[in-house]
Amino acid sequence: MKAADWTAVGATGLAVGSVEPQNGGYVVNVYVYNVSTGQELTAHRFTCSAAELHMTAHHVADVIYQAFTGKPGPFASRIAYVRQTGQTYELLVAESDGWNPHPIVRGLMPVFSPVWSPDNRRLAYVTYANARAVIYVQDLATGQRQTIAPGGEIVSAPAFSPNGTELAYARSSGGHTELYVANLQTGQRRQLTHDDAINTSPTWSPDGSQIIFVSDRAGGPQIYAMSASGGAAHRLSYDGSYNASPVYSPAGNAIAFIHRTDGVYALAVMKPDGSGVRVLDAQGNCDHPSFAGNGQMILYGTQRGGRKVLAEVSLDGKTMAILHSNAGGDSQPAWSH
Question: Where would you find this protein in the cell (predicted)?
Fold first, then answer.
């Protein structure tokens, strides 16, 4: 590698790779260099089948990302999301760029709020059964489903605890909505909130000590925090009249949420104490933000050209990509851990 050839065009880093057929599959090599010094930063070799070639490209991207940033890459991961085509709803799982989607659920009943378990082996989501909303926790390998909460209750907004043993959710009754936590092994549950407001969209802090959620107890949807064991809640969001769908970053140093500004439901982030609100995307109405496992990118639903699409944006807002699809409208995404 001749450093001068690349510094002349302003490059600071260089990745060189090769793909070679071998025994019906492929060998993929990648070498990453610091252009200014000529130093080889890292080199990796992958073997894969033809079916695994696209995911291997994600692994290569992760190698390059980590070589230059020092942080794990987010690319060799999966996303779940909801697609509506006509009257048909699908819960799909795909690679992080939307490639190779395959259905987990397909039918005429709407599907909402998919969320990954911490080990990425299960998905919790909301759909309808017997004209009632129900939460399922589905094992992706076996297809086996566990129903959360007794039949007949109106439930929504599932969220796994960081250790995967509990599920927080919202239950509606008598004109108000309260938060509950169910033990996935014993079925026992406990009530977190006790008031006449609408309390919904719970999500756990990475250490499991806190739950943030949305409540209209002050007149409009705002973000609150409380101990995961229950007790008093304190308000986090004060910027604007509508703040919803909060989610912690994996490191707990940021919260992504939906923030209404100038009539648009924008994607925004703030510090864990509610300060430092920054809007990342206000080009179209956004929904359901979800952090990548490395905490440096956010996946979310939005609208472009009158269509529902998925998008990814970096935490600093400098890089954005639309995951284009030629089928249906895509929304409510969740990024695996």
Answer: Periplasm
CB atoms within 10 A of CB 234: 9
Residue 36 is predicted with a pLDDT of 86
Largest distance between two CA atoms of the chain: 72
The order of strands in the sheet holding 189-191 is 154-160, 166-173, 176-183, 189-191
Q: Which of 119-123, 233-237, 293-297, 304-308 has the lowest mean pLDDT?
A: 304-308
Domain 78-335 has CATH 2.60.40.10: no
The structure tokens listed for 312 are 């990814």
24 conformational bin, left if phi > 0, alpha if psi -120 to 50, beta if neither: left
Q: Which pLDDT score is estimated for 187? A: 92
The average pLDDT across 310-315 equals: 97
**Cα–Cα nearest to 321, from 281, 291, 264:** 281
> Domain map of the chain by residue range?
3-69, 78-335
Apex 326 CA angle, 321 and 331, nearest 5: 60
The answer to whether residues 287 and 302 touch, using CB atoms and an 8 Å cutoff, is: yes
> What CATH homologous superfamily does 3-69 map to?
TolB, N-terminal domain (3.40.50.10070)
Does the pTM surpass 0.90? The reply is yes
Q: How do 329-335 and 255-261 pair as beta strands? A: unpaired
- CB atoms near residue 96 (< 10 Å): 24
Report how far residue 148's alpha carbon sits from residue 153's, in angstroms, rounded to the nearest whole number: 10
The answer to whether the 3-69 and 78-335 domains have the same CATH topology is: no
